[in-house]
Amino acid sequence: MTVPSSHVDEGLKLTADGEVILYEINLMNVPDGASAVLRFRDGPMGSSTQWDGKTWDHLAVQFSGYSRSSEEEKSRPTLRLMNPVGIFNEAAFEGRFDGALLQRYTVLRDHLERGVVISNNEMYFIGRVKDLISGQSISFELRSLSDGPDQLIPARMFLPSEGFPFVTL
């Protein structure tokens, strides 16, 4: 029995193609109050992908440092983008990335190819630009939406039940 060549090609890749991750950044502090949105995904430069009626440009992307913990610590993942010929320099120097909203869509490759709009969404905001190497890369520190200075977590209150009036903390 022969193995189809598409299966062999898939088995030799360094990363699986079952899921495609799309990124969308809504920039802040844009002149004239206009909204600026960057849409991209990891892939060969010069090509693009159509999904959900939007165009996603291909750009070298690395998302790292994501973790989940049952304790109080929050992970602050890093998003690194290729910065060819310094296209992101001006926006970084003007502070347009500070507080920008990042949406990360995980889409099955089959859904992407058939145009089915089903995805797993994650939202972060960009806390700061960690690293900027002109002409090479730009890195952002991401934070969860509840990890900010203006977020308040409601206090917990203990009220003894009527059946146990003598129970205290």
CATH class: Mainly Beta
CATH architecture: Roll
Taking all Cα atoms into account, the compactness measure Rg is 21 Å
Average pLDDT over all residues: 81
What shape does the CA trace take? Answer: extended
Number of H/I helices:
3
- Derived from helix and strand composition plus strand pairing, the structural class reads mainly beta
Main sheet overview: 9 strands, mixed
For the biggest β-sheet, the strand order reads: 3-4-2-1-7-8-9-6-5
- Strand segment count: 9
Output the helix-strand order.
HEEEEEEHEHEE
- Give the termini separation: 70 Å
Q: Please give the share of residues in helix.
A: 10-25%
Number of domains: 1
CATH topology: Pnp Oxidase, Chain A
Instruction: Point out poorly predicted stretches.
Output: none
User: Which band does the percent of strand residues land in?
Assistant: 35-45%
* Quaternary class: single chain
